[in-house]
Amino acid sequence: MAKITYIEHNGTEHTVDVASGLTVMEGARDNNIPGIEADCGGACACSTCHAYIDADWFRKLPGVEAMEEDMLDFAWNPEPGKSRLTCQIKVTDDLDGLVVRLPEKQI
Ligand code: FES
Predict the structure, then answer these.
(1) Residue 43 placed within a domain
(2) Which atom of ligand 1 is nearest to the CA of 44?
(3) Which DSSP state fits 83?
(4) Site to substitute for ligand 1 among 44, 67, 90, most atoms within 8 A of C-beta
(5) Best probe residue, ligand 1, of 33, 49, 67, 83 (max atoms within 8 Å of C-beta)
(6) Cα radius of gyration rounded to whole Å, the chain
(7) 3-state DSSP call for residue 92?
(8) How many Å lie between the centroid of ligand 1 and the Cα of residue 43?
């Protein structure tokens, strides 16, 4: 279980508990947090679960796999060193306190 804070582009914050084993995308979806669309359901095939991760947390996360790297090219306004596809981040206890900033829009 990890407490994750999702911050919408307009500044609205949502802090929720997300069970380990889910993805950061599923945590947003299951809590009806706006800003993550996840059109492909988590298959790393749409890039509509794009979000920005603060630098300190970005370094702690497992690395970006090649498939995610490719799909990030299709995300809206990706930023190197910040952008991740949230369906590719598995929640563990170690992610307690994670802050996820949602982009102005998805593609
Ligand atoms: Fe489609 Fe993440 S939900 S790439």
Answers:
(1) yes
(2) 4
(3) E
(4) 44
(5) 49
(6) 12
(7) coil
(8) 6
CA distance 54 to 3: 15
Per residue in 8-42, pLDDT (tens digit) is 999 999 999 999 999 999 999 999 999 999 999 99
Is 10 within a domain?
yes
| Ligand 1 pocket at CB < 6 A | 25, 38-40, 42-49, 71, 85, 87
Is 107 a domain residue? no
- CB-based contacts of 74-78 (< 8 A; 24+ apart in sequence): 74/47, 74/107, 75/47, 75/50, 75/103, 75/106, 75/107, 76/50, 76/103, 76/104, 76/105, 76/106, 76/107, 77/103, 77/104, 78/50
pLDDT tens per residue, range 69-90: 999 999 999 999 999 999 999 9
Distance, in Å, from the CA atom of 107 to the CA atom of 104, rounded to the nearest integer, reads 10
Domain count, the chain: 1
Residue with CA closest to ligand 1 atom 4:
44
